[in-house]
Structure formats: C-alpha cells, structure tokens
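pasting for ref
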Amino acid sequence: MAIKIRPLQDRVIVKRIEEEEKTKGGIIIPDTAKEKPQEGRVVAVGPGKHEDGKIIPLDVKSGDKILFGKYAGTEIKLNGEEHLILREDDILGVIE
C-alpha cells in the first residue's frame, strides 16, 4: 500500500541523497564515521506561505536537488524509506 502525503503551507518533503562510500583517493568510509548528507531531492511541496490573505508560492518544486542545514527538519518514514519534512526557510539553496 502506497502512502500519499501532501505537505502543508511552506513545508517540503525531501529524500536524502546518499554520499559515496569511498573518498576520491579510494579510502572506504565506515558507517560510524559518516555524517548524514545535507543534499536531497524534493519529493513533494506544500501550496505556499500565507501572508496578508494571499498564498505566496514556494521557490522550489518537486524534483529539485537542494542543500539544507545539518540539523534541519523532522525525519519521517514513508514506504519504509527515510524522508525529511522541512520548512522552506531551512533550505539553503537549489543545486543546478
């Protein structure tokens, strides 16, 4: 059964992009030494922020590759996979 979720207001659902297990020099990084990646792909986007009775749309869209803060967002599980729910303010930039 597939779970469908729609974020509210200025929230975004992101799936982390896993980093490589090796460095460029060929050194293998053990799981205990890895940090959680700060890059992700946007899965779903809320309608936007409410200001003065108007809805201001978000600057990101589904499919965008983004950078976010190390401790930003709330971790959730959807269909057995880890995702994050972030506010638009927690997004640092879009990778083009």
